[in-house]
Fold this protein.
Amino acid sequence: MSIDIRCARLDPEEISRNYSELHTPLTELQAIQESARCLFCHDAPCTEACPTDIDIPGFIRKIASGNVKGAANTILSENIMGNTCGNVCPVEELCEQVCVKKTAEEKPVVIGQLQRYATDHVLENWIQLFQRAPQSGKKAAVVGGGPAGLSCAHRLAMLGHEVTLYESRDKPGGLNEYGLAAYKMLDDRAAREIAYILDIGGINIMTGKTLGKDFELAELRRDYDAVFIGLGHNAVNALGLENEAVDGAHNAVDFIELIRQEDLSTLPVGRQVIIIGGGNTAIDMAVQIKKLGAESVTMVYRRGLDEMGATEYEQQVAQTNGVLIRTHAKPHRILTLDDQLNAVEFEYTQNDADGRLTGSGEKFVLPADQLFKAIGQALDATPLDGEETPEISHGRIKVDESQHTSLPDVWAGGDCTAGKDLTVTAVQDGKIAATSMNEYLNHG
């Protein structure tokens, strides 16, 4: 007996409605009214909370006065991917969390939506705010076309250096293009932002080129004056269970990429779907498969809600979209029928006397015809192998406060280094690295 996992559980029109804007863009009037709520704090806690150091009261004041271009300049000068971050940044845990307007009686200023409003203006009207400095005669290589690599490349190009960006996929963008939930990044938003970044000039992109396969780090160090590594996460963690490769079981990151790149009506959608994991990837996968027509979607996480990697806001997004979240349980066994996924057996978890998570011995079974694994990603440092390699610490490339690795001419940033795995922090890593690289290129 085969289990029915067929395409197009919903018609294209219903899928399109389900994948509409998570937040409707602000109108001009709404943006002006909202910006007027800002108190324009002198020592603004929102700016302190922003990983990219955007002068948040400064750009909001410009919106209030009608200077939207100036507001965008304030944002993009610190965060060249400010448009994406206006859509997906966890503002509820960063700038909006510490907004002084956030009280029992009032909500915080919607900083993320105001940031999107300002940056939409320059992208939609193609107002190029940046130009290159005189050419320095120096060359830099950037490995990885994700947020960290693009941020670094843009800043280096703006400072007058020639940049070659190597990207293993067919097009740049990394997480923004391939890994974010489609309902957060509609239409060609990611591609438009990348085109704007590249419009500054001085950045040559080599797609389909993979480190460790098509070229080596030693070659880059020989041919370029400085190198930036922004590999991101290039490996997916496994459950370590028998039957993990059974028909119907998928890596969430791979499936999210299909959602971003393929016709949504052609994707296989189960009826009873299980997501294993508690991070933002798990939430994105759960919400999207529900929007594609899955009848029941259950997220299972080994710890409690307050320990989930996904923010409370993201948890609410999942629950309001019909996703059931079950906690304190870990996968024990994948059950099959006729070589297809049939169910997953879980074991309840508990903390022992030392606070360590252990199995309780008590188990339960959830029927499933589709399973998504979203238990984290990791860095596979094999592509860096060679006579001289940057130091690796705790599974990530070790860097100092300027994103400098243990090699004198190599910097790194983004998810392949330690820190929060967020677009906004990756952008900041690339910006910091470019500033340090510029000092090195100019003065040695």
Observations:
- The domain at 236-375 is CATH 3.50.50.60 (FAD/NAD(P)-binding domain).
